[in-house]
Amino acid sequence: MKQLRVTNIQRGCVYDGPGVRTTVFLKGCYLRCPWCCNPETISFEKELFIDNSKCLLSKGVHSELCKLCQRNKGSNSITACPFGVAEETSRDYLPDELFHILLRDQSLYIESNGGITFSGGEPLFQSENLVSVLELLKEKGLHIALETSLIAPDQSLLLVNPFIDTYIVDLKIQPEMYLSDSNYQNEIKKHLMMIGGKSIFFRFVFVDSVMDYINEVKDWLSVMEINIIEILVCHNLGAKKYGKLSLANRDFTSSKEKAESFIDFLKDFGIASKILSI
Ligand code: SF4
Where is the Radical SAM core domain (predicted)? Predict the structure, then answer.
């Protein structure tokens, strides 16, 4: 049976849909937003976080324990390092195994009207394998949310849609990459139509350049009849992860003050928004 590749399972989440939830971060994404704070979720391939600051050699210590390490021309892979220099970024789970892990907080979901949220990366990237877990969770009557950009093949969305109660749509309309690209915009529009009738929350990562294209952003939100949106102020807390993956990191950090100006601007056009402090 096919497995699901997961980077993190976070319990007790209160921002990823109604009530108290467990959020599952799935590996793999169709996009590559340069401000992504979880870069280990972008590629579907297995990867390692390498933390060179933990390596004894980098501190000039020549330990017996390091003698067999590849960094000492030995035969042991760096993954055998006893000091945690290499760490897998993901783990593969059989659907049944993941299902039983998610059931640990079943009573909490029921007490708080919460449930399970699948996020990423892009959870639709693993739609085919995800369906098996969704079926099991739905048999238990649990509430399921999906945090997605909706940038994915139609078939991936159609497969999971019957099991999803709430969508958290992470809107890709930032000027740097997405706002002027009609392909992205048409894809989002088409998929919003496909999930029409479900409960939908909209989210948006605020980057400074939005203020330079404020009218275009506002027009797009109005055309799509989006009248309430949660704002995440872009930060650079993922910088260390980029380093551990040997990826270039660009800092798009914005300020709460700038995001508040954006909120005021939207308010004048009847679009309510608030900053989500995660
Ligand atoms: S075993 Fe770990 S600490 Fe020692 S050289 Fe290898 S990576 Fe560095």
Answer: 15-272
Atom of ligand 1 nearest to the CA of 68: 1
* CB neighbour list of residue 261: distance below 8 Å, 6 or more residues apart: 211
How confident is the model over 98-151, as pLDDT tens digits?
999 999 999 999 999 999 999 999 999 999 999 999 999 999 999 999 999 999
Q: Please indicate, yes or no, whether residues 147 and 267 belong to a single structural domain of this protein.
A: yes
Residues with a CB atom less than 6 Å from ligand 1: 55-57, 66, 69, 71-72, 78, 81, 83, 85
Model confidence pLDDT, tens digit, residues 224-254:
889 899 999 999 999 999 999 999 999 999 9
Q: 268 and 173 share a domain?
A: yes
How many beta carbons lie within 10 A of that of residue 147, not counting itself? 23
Amino acid at 83: F
**What separation in Å is there between the alpha carbon of 197 and the centre of ligand 1?**
54
Domain that holds residue 168: 4-47+92-275
pLDDT at 91 over 70: yes
Q: How many helices (H) and strands (E) does the chain have?
A: 8, 11
Atom 5 in ligand 1: residue holding the nearest Cα: 66
Closest protein CA for atom 8 of ligand 1: 55
